[in-house]
Amino acid sequence: MLARKSIIPEEYVLARIAAENLRKPRIRDRPRKARFIAKNGACNLAHKNIREQGRFLQDIFTTLVDLKWRHTLVIFTMSFLCSWLLFAMMWWLVAFAHGDMDPSTENASNSTKWTPCVTCVRSFTSAFLFSIEVQVTIGFGGRMMTEECPLAITVLILQNIVGLIINAVMLGCIFMKTAQAHRRAETLIFSRQAVIAVRNGKLCFMFRVGDLRKSMIISASVRIQVVRKTTTPEGEVIPIHQVDIPVDNPIESNNIFLVAPLIICHVIDKRSPLYDISASDLALQDLELIVILEGVVETTGITTQARTSYVAEEILWGHRFVPIVTEEEGVYAVDYSKFGNTVKVAAPRCSARELDEKPSILIQTLQKSELSHQNSLRKRNSMRRNNSIRRSNSMRRTNSSLIVPKVQFITPEGSQSASET
């Protein structure tokens, strides 16, 4: 617009636009790989083209439990409603076959010679109400069975049996949905990020896990798997290749006592898939580390499982988790606000293989870290010393400004007398 008005030459505008485009390099981000396990533990997997749908009906109870809540509530309501309508039709047919619906029998029913199968059932509405009373055992008292019709007694027994089966299945389904194991896993938390740092002279992959409830997880165990796309020497491509990696646990049973948040450690050794990965290679790796925590819920006795995963972008090299457990007035307190906080520490940037081949790299890294720490302490002490000197000088200046100067008084006789006020 300015170039059109001849305020700025057009050649200058084009040159400036070209320079701005050259200054900003166009970087194309690497397409993000789909996660196999989400951070909340859900499996990112879609089942398609399943032809044998009848297998789900063979295990109808598990199918009902796996359904969504809205579908379960619809099935729960329709199962009772359909059974009431079915047996209402049967009661209406029994009354119709016996002649209870005939208006001429209404006056005869008042005499002692006529006895209906079910009293006060003269329409489909009354038969539907009687069906509800039989199945849910309400019994208002207006309608009741008589011993006139054996068929009606058979229908009564059949409806009671079917009603008990429906109650057992549907109530059990509702109970199992409310007491599912993954509900307990909602209070089992993992750190948002994992770290790689030196522990006991070895590079270690670490993450933090905790339980928000006071009720414990019995026999809790942690497993770590690496999921990556691999190709065999024969040329076979395995899109989801799972490899178990060991967890450093001094207990032989591999069970953890999850009474407080713990830092789970995996030593990167020759058995580890991370053995040849350095800090610069980590961002280029197409891998995903899946963490699985299993245990038995103390209150219900149901086995639960909590899952999460860490991709390369969520692993911090050269960091360590800050401590969150402190002792306050004889009680161990856990500060969950610092659950995922990390601090940067000295760690070699090379791979674990290079660290095993050249142990001097770790010593040099620690020495550099110690020197940098000492230099920072010296700078901090010098800054404190300079600040203290400045404060003392400023205080001296303020004190000197408060000193009152001497004043001379001249008497009438001409003599001078000096007095200090």
Put simply, the count of helices is 11
Q: Which percent bin holds the helix content?
A: 25-40%
The largest sheet is: 5 strands, mixed
| Shape designation | elongated
* Percent of sequence in beta strands: 15-25%
CATH superfamily membership of one domain: G protein-activated inward rectifier potassium channel 1
Main location: membrane
Family: Belongs to the inward rectifier-type potassium channel (TC 1.A.2.1) family.
Membrane topology: Multi-pass membrane protein
Subcellular location: Membrane
Walk me through what this model shows.
- The chain contains eleven helices and 16 strands.
- The chain is elongated.
- The chain has helices at 10-23, 54-58, 60-66, 69-98, 104-108, 124-136, 150-178, 181-184, 279-282, 352-357, 360-401; strands at 188-190, 194-199, 202-211, 217-231, 237-245, 255-256, 262-267, 287-297, 303-311, 315-317, 319-321, 325-328, 331-334, 342-344, 407-410, 416-419.
- Helices cover 38% and strands 23% of the residues.
- Strand 15 (407-410) and strand 16 (416-419) form a beta hairpin.
- The chain has 421 residues and is an alpha+beta fold.
- Mean pLDDT is 78; it is low at 1-8, 10-15, 22-28 and 414-421.
- The longest helix has 42 residues, at 360-401.
- Strands 1, 2, 3, 7 and 10 form a five-stranded mixed β-sheet that branches. Strands 4, 5, 6, 8 and 9 form a five-stranded antiparallel β-sheet that branches. It has a two-stranded antiparallel sheet with strand order 11-14.
- Among the domains are: 66-178, Helix Hairpins (Orthogonal Bundle), CATH 1.10.287; 182-361, Immunoglobulin-like, CATH 2.60.40.
- Helix 4 crosses helix 6 (124-136), helix 4 runs antiparallel to helix 7 (150-178) and helix 6 crosses helix 7.
